Fold this protein.
Amino acid sequence: MNMNWPDHRPMALSLSFDIDAETLWLTRNPINYHHPVHVSRGRYSVKQGIPRILRLLESEGVKATFFTPAYTAELHPDVIRDIDAQGHEIAYHGYLHEAYDDYEKENALMEKCEKIYQGIIGKRPMGDRSPDGLLYDFHLKLWLERGYIYSSNWRDTDRPFIHQLDGKPIPIVELPKDSINDDTSYDMYTIQHPEHYYLKSGREMVQIWKEELDGLLEEGGYMNFVMHPQFIGHPGYIHALRSFIRYAKDHGVWIATDEQVARHLLAQNGFPEYGEKQ
Amino acid sequence: MISLKNGDGIQWPEGKRIAVMLTFDFDAELLRYSVIGKRKIGFADVSRGQYGPKEGLKRCLAMLQRNRLPATFFIPGEIIEKYPEQCREIAAGKYEIAYHGYDHDNTIGLSQEKETASLEKSEKLIQGLTGRKPVGARGPLDALQDDSLDLFSQRGYLYDSTLKDCDWPYVLENGLVELPTDVAMDDFSYFYFSYADEAPINCSYLPDDVYAMWQDAFDELAAEGDKILVIKLHPQLIGRVSRINMLERFILYMQQRGAWIADCQTVAQYVKEFYTKKESEAK
């Protein structure tokens, strides 16, 4: 696996967000359909978190990927248009934050969602981060058929790799992630039965991320993130995220969208026709 | 250009950077009954809840008084019946007293008749203390029903402070001002400790860590300039001496950095007038 980053940069990272918004609460517990306060926590994502995050990304001059349930896109098309207009990437994340264990149903779901994104921003998603981490044996084949070029689901390595089907490399890159780089491990609070999640500070969150970055910098690795605007968009956590982005920039890290990283890696690993679109 | 707005451009009096509200949910042991949704809890939990009326409230009031700070107390009607002396003391300090349910239970699934009855009963009890009906409401247990906000508006309320959808105040279609809150600015998220639930809630953070988290949030919001910060406190939790000292230091920090500290009614009134004026100027 060749991992030569542009301009001889020592490592790469992708700032990826999952805009689950209301779906995070609605799919957790059906009571929440009639729990306006919990729904309002989800809505913070599109009403406050994303506007604040877009300004942060703009002022730091970096691009990010937003994994977006198509339901969120339908409900808040202006938000999705703004993200796209800023040069960020919209990627696949289910309709209502779900994934099916049946090939036909999952295929139909992906088609439905792709049409929704097409209708709003005129683009299709190039990557899939499957909601709730649900993946089935048919997914690689399905992605290949539907023209996806990356997945961000595996948690077993810090290194991107090229997926294989029937023993042969296919033009799909894995951009791995894990809960250590997932903001909900630190900034999601709920005591709604049966879940109890408590808060850690933004300072602790990015201290862990900075220490990870320090180590991966030496190894020349890659970091991908799972960040939820409804949590990390809160002022104390944005404060911390800004300091992390500046830390990464100060260390010469290539900060790029998932799609940019995927194309860059495909091009140097046997699939030159997928090279980065300019 | 980013077209999504990040705030509503409200400007605070005298060039202040942010409106900060100190709000105390004075729930005593009712909080502990409603967190687990049961009418029966153990002695330890009842007693922890009663730390509020017995000890914590005094420290909260003393801290407010020595710093000459306004504050809003959200008090369930049943608490006014159970702890009349403590509530009279709050009223004597001219602090705002606002609606917070009658028995503090989650209202979801409650019929409109029952919610109205709880409002009527509690409003009378508040009126008995302050001489007037409350103008603000906060849903007990961080919950509202689909039509609760309309109900508040129909009953002539000025504001609600329960939702969590942004960091700026806004006027709802029904005319009610919403002063959103944030779980990260709630002492419950850091200090609630109980074994009463099937899964215990055992938070006991270092006050300095909470201070740092609140400081970061405050700094960011004050820099944006058109935001509010509603600090949600419970005398039974924040009233511990180590925590009230932390809160006092945090208040001083905010005052040094452009905070306009006012009660919810004052801020809601200001917000309503600001937007009404802005709207009429736009016409």
